[in-house]
Automatic annotation (TrEMBL):
The keyword DNA-binding applies. This is HTH cro/C1-type domain-containing protein. The lineage of its organism: Bacteria, Pseudomonadati, Pseudomonadota, Alphaproteobacteria, Sphingomonadales. The keyword Kinase does not apply. SUPFAM superfamilies: lambda repressor-like DNA-binding domains (SSF47413). It comes from Sphingomonas leidyi. Residues 10-64 form the HTH cro/C1-type domain. Keywords: DNA-binding, Transcription, Transcription regulation. Belongs to the short-chain fatty acyl-CoA assimilation regulator (ScfR) family. InterPro entries: Cro/C1-type_HTH, HTH_RamB, IrrE_HExxH, Lambda_DNA-bd_dom_sf, ScfR_C, TransReg_Diox_bact_type. GO terms for cellular component: cytosol. It comes from the Bacteria. GO terms for molecular function: DNA binding; DNA-binding transcription factor activity.
Length: 466
């Protein structure tokens, strides 16, 4: 942990609890003068004091962490990217470190602005106008993405419920299909009916208590769909409570969030938290080995690894993405500070896209962002057929990444020099916000910045001009 000067946050904590300096110092077991030095940023906040804050006030130490600060900086960079004025990274870092509440307010105001733009665009469309107030509409699926991102992709109440049902139903990795069929029948009177393959994978009739599954699903996919339906049967109230969130601003977003939470529960039931974390650590996070142990696919393991952030038993904080050949990101989950910009798109130097050229092979990359933070990425393709000759199938590249300081815990770091700066590939969060002017893959200049071009010099222009 680097030296953390968090005086403003300490003063805010004290003011929120209506405590005097002497009272807070006594609660933390330190002198009033030492606390005063901490609040004046004359001394850094230490780990023992952070742990004491957690013990006395129940404060999550993550709120004072470098990761939390980096998350805030990333979100603020998105918020100010459309402001028209260039703000240095150092200024944003100072704001995140000393006045995080101001930073979060800035992000909230930007979100409200985007929502206002969306409403204006909708009204313009209804009136038949051919203009819009902005360039981007915050779609319901993006609201749901923000909903999970705000929770670090971890929903404790669903993880606990999944472990309880897994235990009560006597499930195991190799008996989970039969066990879920028996649990649905015995607990809810629901019978399973597997019909012809079709576009609808799962449908439930409450009147007849029949759960229809497509015959085109594998046994593992049937298990996931049964577990998803079980979430609606047993945890409907809890899921409904979770979706009452200001991030979800419309009914469609809340409906999507309900499905997302049910899917989260399904993954947690197939891969129960405690058992899965223990196996992941024992196997050094070997994705394919974990898939063999629990009988699931590469993507399912990666998705679950990105959720292991229980405060009392944290796994490696991973970032998970799923992309197609066109660069569309259909899934994006982050357990910590990293995420690609909502404004900038993605980077062609990112190893995830190279996976399409080497299908089925696990690729590795040490990648460094413009702010100097370095990550280890693992990528591989996953695919499924269309079910019949001539029907197109699906192919995606799955990416799983973590901060370089956690990379030593992964089997994928073997043979890599994690301490060599030259081993890292410089990538960015997309050309619109990336600050690398000399990148050979740059498609256009950053938002709000002009690129100095001299027509009398033969220097190549790093993005298309015609």
């Amino acid at each position: 942990m680097r030296k953390a000067y968090m005086g403003v946050r300490l003063r805010r904590l004290r003011e929120e609890r209506n405590l005097k300096q002497v009272e807070l110092a006594q609660a933390l077991g330190i002198s009033a003068s030492y606390l005063n030095q901490l609040e004046q940023n004359q001394r850094p906040l230490t780990v023992p004091i952070l742990l004491k804050l957690n013990a006395v006030f129940g404060i999550d130490v993550q709120l004072f962490s470098e990761d939390e600060e980096a998350r805030l900086i990333t979100d603020m960079r998105d918020a100010v990217a459309e402001g028209g004025e260039s703000i240095a990274l150092a200024e944003l870092r100072e704001l995140a470190a000393n006045m995080p509440a101001v930073g979060r307010t800035l992000i909230a105001l930007h979100r409200r602005y985007r929502d206002a733009v969306e409403r204006g665009d909708v009204m313009a469309a209804q009136l038949g106008d051919d203009w819009t107030l902005g360039t981007r509409v915050r779609q319901p699926f993006e609201q749901v993405r923000d909903f999970f991102y705000a929770r670090r992709n971890h929903v404790e109440v669903l993880d606990e419920a999944a472990e309880r049902i897994y235990r009560d139903a006597g499930l195991s990795p190799r008996t989970i299909h039969a066990g879920l069929v028996a649990w649905l029948r015995g607990k809810h009177g629901v019978e399973l009916a597997v019909g012809e393959a079709g576009p609808v994978q799962r449908s439930y009739d409450p009147a007849t208590r029949l759960l229809h599954l497509s015959a085109g699903l594998t046994l593992g996919q049937q298990v996931f769909q049964m577990a998803t339906q079980l979430a609606f049967l047993e945890l409907d109230e809890a899921i409904g409570t979770l979706t009452v969130d200001p991030i979800l601003i419309d009914d469609e977003a809340r409906r999507l969030a309900r499905i997302g939470l049910a899917n989260y529960f399904a993954g947690a039931l197939v891969l129960p938290y405690g058992d899965f974390l223990a196996a992941a650590e024992a196997e050094h996070y070997d994705i394919e080995r974990l898939g063999e142990i629990f009988g699931v696919g590469f993507e399912t393991v990666c998705h679950r690894l990105s959720t292991l952030q229980r405060p009392s038993a944290r796994g490696v904080p991973f970032f998970f993405v799923r992309v197609d050949r066109a660069g569309n990101i259909s899934k994006r989950q982050s357990a910590t500070d990293f995420h690609f910009s909502r404004v900038g798109g993605t980077c062609p130097l990112w190893k995830v896209y190279e996976a399409f050229a080497q299908p089925g092979r696990v690729l590795r990359q040490i990648a460094q962002m413009p702010d100097g933070r370095t990550y280890l990425w693992v990528a591989r393709t996953v695919m499924s057929s269309g079910g019949a000759f001539g029907k197109p199938g699906k192919t995606f590249a799955i990416g799983l990444g973590c901060d370089i300081r956690h990379a030593g815990q992964l089997v994928y770091s073997r043979g890599l020099d994690l301490s060599d700066p030259a081993a890292a590939t410089p990538i960015g969060a997309g050309c619109k916000v990336c600050e690398r002017p000399a990148c050979p893959q740059r498609a256009f200049p950053p938002i709000g910045r002009a690129l100095a071009i001299d027509e009398n010099r033969a220097a190549p222009v790093p993005y298309p001009v015609a």
